Amino acid sequence: MIRALTFVTASLIAVAANAQDAQLVTAAGNRAGENAVRQAGDAFGTVIGREEIGLYSDSYVRGFSPRVAGNVRIAGLYFDPVFFPSDRISGSTVIRVGPTVLGSPFPSPTGIVDLGLRVPGDKAGASVLANIDTWGSRIIEADVALPISDGFSLGVGGQIAHEHMGDGTRDYYYEAALIARLRPAPGIELVPFISLAYTPFHEAATIYVPTGEALPPRLPRNFWNGPSWQRTRETELNAGGVLTADLGPGWALKAGLFRSSVAYFEDFTNLLTDVQPDGSGRALVIIDPPLLFASTSGEVRLTRSWTSGERAHQFHLAVRGRDARRRFGGAQQVDLGPATLTTAQGAPQPVAAFTDQERDRFRQWTLAAGYEGRWDGVGEISLGVQHSDYRKRIGLPGVAPVATSTRPLLFNANAAVVISPRLAAYGGYVTGLEESGVAPEQAANRNEALPAIRTRQFDAGLRWNVAGDLRLVVGLFDVSKPYFNLDAARVFRQLGDVRNRGLEASFSGPVTPRLTVVAGAVLLSPRVTADVPGVGRRPVGAVAQTYTISGDWRPPWLPGVSLDASVSHESSTTAAVSNLVAIPAQTFVDIGGRYRFKLAGSAATLRVQVENLLDQQGYELFGAGAYRPVWGRAANAYITIDL
What we know:
4% of the residues lie in helices and 59% in strands. It is mainly β. The two termini are 41 Å apart.
């Protein structure tokens, strides 16, 4: 375009640039500069390396989970992760909602989780990170980038983690990863990757289920009451590749193929049920035989681009698919007898007595066509239509397989309109076919895959470019989905429908050259409609008000030093299907600092942080009527060295 782009296009380009910068700064040899507050484009959710800030995450957006829904992308392409890629492969994550979905073809209700790859560059480099915390964790990470030739760069990474959790459990984790960048011809780039991890030692955190409609008594911290033989072993795999190709003037191809799997040698669920006000209860352990969860997914997208004066156009034709398989069930439930919150279980390990397992398979193909148009000084629009073919085969032990299918037609329409050089309005309507997850650990039908569901979303709002990179976004949203939860028999199934309406706001950017702020708020009004007796009008997990603010300040009299703090507040959380129980409001304060310096000529950063500074006591909801303790105050420190 001839003249400078005005607000809408400029801000969207800035969002894309922020995502690219985040990916570059997390590359090997450049990790000492990781800083989520300074690199976040908004307050809706950003992960940079080990740091995460914002209102939303991969498990919670507008009251729902985009991860469960299947709304994950890697390098902008459809990805169905069974296990999320680690920092060795993906160094950044951005939650895309509201105006930030423009520029991402075929958005979905519940938002998009967009993972960035840690692509090795043209320069050799290495980063080493060592972390400790007051719980007793010890973690070492290393990433190396090696340019082999003009068209080939190789990245090698690894991690050794001995983690001690705030609930007293331990987790030992070892990982090795490879990622490469190949440029076999001008305009063609291939980024293959593989990450293989092994967990030889994982203790399952205790899930506390109180008697009746009540909260449990105060739960113990840094204490695990499970039996010593309850140690899960598993392997995790993420592998795949992304291909981008310039096919000539105005034509581009982008494709990705990915494999994600988790294989358990054995798995354990640790429950303390019938918890009384005095802390007594009954200990149950569920032992699973070997389990397997695996998915192959990907997307091929052909794009035609052209311009006409100050208008830019793109037409997309895409095919997405996945083939997921699950082998689960056959578990053995062991009653360990009476127990208390503070008594460790000493019962011997029982002889295995497993039953036949269920084997499920999901196959989904989606053909999509979309148009994106940008008009300098006027606005932009995104239209899309998708035809999806979803098939599910349930292989129950001893009976004939049960098959279900659906073939919905889905569409989206999103737009932004320039009101003034600094102000734009945006809005959109999206329909989707999403996954509804699996039944939770405490359900009678635990691990059972739930059916795919039809969803829809409206949203609209304003984006104001206050000054420079300082931006304010205020929007309204309305998301509707079927509502799944526990019935009176503790079977996790559809109980009705849920509609989440609310307001979200983001204020982010440099207030001064030395102070950067990221602040956000969500006001949520959820409503359940159900004919099932005993189902309340608010969904389990609903939080009416969420506020967060994070700041990073570089004092002028301390070169290389930055100080940071964050405060987050949640109003009460609905904890029971009946709505008769709620977790009280909770506020968390974290403080920290960084010191950037040279170590033997290499850039280094020392990061120190205290989490839960006020030592907030409380509960973490783990499904209807099930709880875990909020971890207490803890300090952690790590040093990152770029070589």
